[in-house]
Predict the 3D structure of the following.
Amino acid sequence: MDGHLMGLITLTMGLPLACNKENQEDKMPLLDTADTLKDTLLVFVEMVGGQLNPATGVKEGGITVNAVRPHSCAHRSPATASGWDDCLHWRAMTPHTAPIVFKPQGLLESLLAGLQRIALQMLIKPVFSPRFSIRFQRRWLQALARLTLPVPRSVSITPGTVGGVSGEWVRSRKVDAAVTPAGTLLYLHGGAYCIGSPVTHRALTARLALASGLPVFVLDYRLAPEHPYPAAMDDALAAFAALAADGPVTIGGDSAGGGLALAAALALRDAGGATPASLLLLSPLADAVMPDPVPTPPPGEAMLSVPWALACTGFYRGTHAFTEPGISPIRGDLRGLPPTLIQAGTDELLHDQALALHEALQSAGVTSRCEITQGRWHVFQLHGGVLKSADEAITRLVSFMHAHLPRAREGVPEHEVVILGAGMSGLCMAIQLQQAGIHNVVLLEKQAGLGGTWWDNTYPGAHVDVPAPAYSFSFAPNPRWTRRFASAPEIQTYMRELAERHGITARIRFNTQLSEASFDEATGQWTLTTGNAESMRSRFFVCSAGPLSQPRWPEIPGLDEFQGRRLHSARWDATCPLKGQRVAVIGTGSTASQIVPPVAAQAAHLQVFQRTANWVMPRIDRPYTAVDRWLAQSGLYNRMVRWSWVQVLEWGRRGFDEGTLARKGMLKTAAAHRLKQVPDEDLRTRLTPTYPLGCKRIIYSNDFYRALSQPHVELVTQGIERITPHGVQTIDGRERPVDVLICATGFDVAHMLSSIKVTGLHGQTLSARWQAGPEAYHGITVAGFPNFFLMLGPNTATGHTSTLLYIEPGVQHAIACMKAVRRGGQRWIDVRPDVMTTHNQRLQARLGGSVWSQCRSWYRLESGRVIALFPGFTREYVNAVKTVDLNDYTLG
C-alpha cells in the first residue's frame, strides 16, 4: 500500500506551463500580427462548444474540426474555391478509423484515480501559476519527482550523451539480448517547452524500458525561455541521427514533447535520410494556435489551462509564428510520416487536439491509431504502477512500437513466436508472452476478424454453455456480462476489448492462411509459408487453432446436389432468409439445440433430423442487473464469483462417474426437465437418450424441448438415405421437401491441422505422426516437433467446465519451455518420445473404462480411442502442467 500512497502525489509532467512572473507582460496574441484574416481562415476553422459524450469521449454538437489544408491538395491555390471544395470532398471520401475508447474498470481503480486527481490539483496546479517563476516551478517538480516517484528497481539509469546532447539511458536489467530486436526509443519529455527533465519522467520511461526490453534514451533538450525554437528541435534531430546510425529508432513524447516528436519526424522526412520506425504521442501539443473563442477546459481537468499554454508556447516560439510547422506540426504537410499512436484522456485540455491530429494524419494517408481513455487526465501514463489504466496504456504503447520495428534477415521476416489463430487461446498466449517480456510475436488469423470459434459461429442463438464468469480469463474478468450464459456477440466483444486493451490487435495478420510449417534443426527455427506464398521465420511456433476450427459436413450422398440454400452452423450466412421457409436441421447436439429455437420462430415448417437423443439439462440462466455489474467492478467479488462457479462445474464432473450422488441428481434433473417441457409422451420417448449420461456433451437449454414441441416443428428419427436436389429422403423412402438445409454437424476433430503441412525432425510430418489419431504430451507438445506447442491440443477438452481453465495453465507450460531454451542458450526443446508414449498410454487406459468410451461422439475415433477429453478433474491437469520437468524433454 506504501506504493499506492506514494503514487497519490505522483506528479504528471508534460504540462503547458505558466509564464515567468517577471515576464508576464510578454504574452503572445492568439495569432501573429502579421497573419492576415485570409491566412487564418485557411489555416484553421475551429468550432467549439457542444457536450462531451461519456460513452465515446468525443465532443458532440460543437465538434472541433481542425480544417487543416488537406496535404494531398497542397498544390491547389487556396484562393480557388472549387479547388478547396475538391480537397474537402477528397478528405470526406477517405476511409478513416475512429478513435478507440477505453473505459477503466474496477472500484479500486476509481478510488485511486480520484485520489490521484485531488493530489494533482493540490500539489501541481497551484504551482503552475503566473505567481511563480519558471525557475521555481522547475525546482518544485524536480524535488517532487525525486521524493514521490519511485523508479522500479529492475531498471538501470545512467547519464549519457548522444549526438552531443545530454540525457539519460533507461534500461531494463532483465533484457534477453538474444531475443530483443535491435532498436531504441528516443523519448522527449513534456513540460510546455519550459520545464521538465528526464528525472521528472522516470516513472514513465522506466516502465517503457521494462515493458519493451528496449533501451530508452530520454533527451534533456534545451528549454525556453532561455533557448527558444529551434533549439529543442536541433537537439532532437542530432540525437536521432546518432541513434539511427546503430539501428531503428522510435520517437515518443508527451505533451510538448509529443509535439516536438511530430515536428522532428516532419524534419527528418524532409531531410530524406533515416526516419522513425513509429511515433508514440501522449497527449501531444500539436497545435500552438489557440482558437477564438478560447475553449473551456473540461470539468475534470487537473492541471492545464489556456493561459499557461499560450504563455509557454509564446516563450518557445521566440520570433517565429505560431503557425510554423516546427511549432504547430499539425499545420505542416503530414504525408509520409511513420505509423503513429496517439493516446489522450477525456479530462484534459488537449483531448480535442488528439482527435484533430488523428483526423489530419489519416487524411494525409498516415497509419494512425488514436486511443482515448475515459476519465483520465493529461499524460496519465505517468501513474503506471498505481493505476491499471496507465499500465494498460503503456502496454499498448509498447505493443505498437514492437509491431512496427523492422525484423527481417535476407528479406524474410523473423519473429520469436508465431501464433496460429486469434481465438481465446491465441489471445491468452499473446498476452502472457507480452507479460513474460517476449514481444517479437505475430498472430496469423485466417478469418477477417479475431474470435476463433466465436468468429465462425455466428448462427442465431449462439452462446457459451458454461457461466460467463468462468468463461473469462483469471487475469481479465469482465464486469459487463449482461447474462449468466453469454451470447456469442458478447464473447466476441470481450475478446476484442481484451485484444485492444493489451495492444494485441496490432500484432494480428488477418486473412492470412498458413499452408506449411517446417522446422530446421540446424538453426532451431520454423519456416512458415502462407497461402499467398509469403514466408517468415520463427523460433517458436504455437498452434492455437484448437479442435473446433475445421467444420465437418455430414457424409450423406447427394449433399452437393441440393439446389436450395445450404448452411453450416460454423459458416453461417445471415443473409439467408428463413422466414416462411421449409427448413431442415441435421443434428441435435449442443449447436443444434441453440439453433433450433430461433429458427423455429421464423420457419413455416421445421424438420429436425436426429440420429441419437441427447441428455438435456435446464440452463440456470438469468440477466445480470445493474447491481450485478456494479458489484463486478470489485476484483475480489469477481474472483469469488468465478471461483464459486468453477467449484459448481467441478461438482458436475462427478456426475460422469457411476454411483455418485452428483450423477443421481443429474439423472433426476434431466428426467424432470424432459417431463416438464415435453408433454407428448411419444415425442418424449424419442427424446430420451439410450446411452449413459456424459458420454456425449450434455446440452443445457430451456427452449430446445419447447421448440421441438411446437406444431410446425417435426422431430425426424428415421435415418437419412440421401439428400435430393429439393429435399431429404429418409430410409423409409419418403422425400421431405426442404428450402434451406442447415448442417449442425460440428467440427472435424480427428483431422486436426490437416489443412497445414507441418514438418518436424527428419522430415516427419504431423499428419504421418498422427495417422492413428492426434496425441501429445499434456496436449501441448509432440515428440519430433521441437519448439512446437499446441493450445487445446489432444485430450485437453472438457465435458463439464470452461476450456479457459485448461488454456491458461497450458500457455504457462509452453512459455516455461520457451524460457528454458532461452535461458540455457539452446536452439530447441522437444518432448521425449518415450515420455509422450507413456503419458498417452496411461490416459487411454483411464479413458477406456470411462463413460466416454460407451457411445459414438466427437470425443472419440471410430477405433474407440478417445482423443478429445481429459479424463480427470481440472485441478489434476493444472498440477500436471504447472511445472516443466526438463527430464521429460530434450534440449538441442
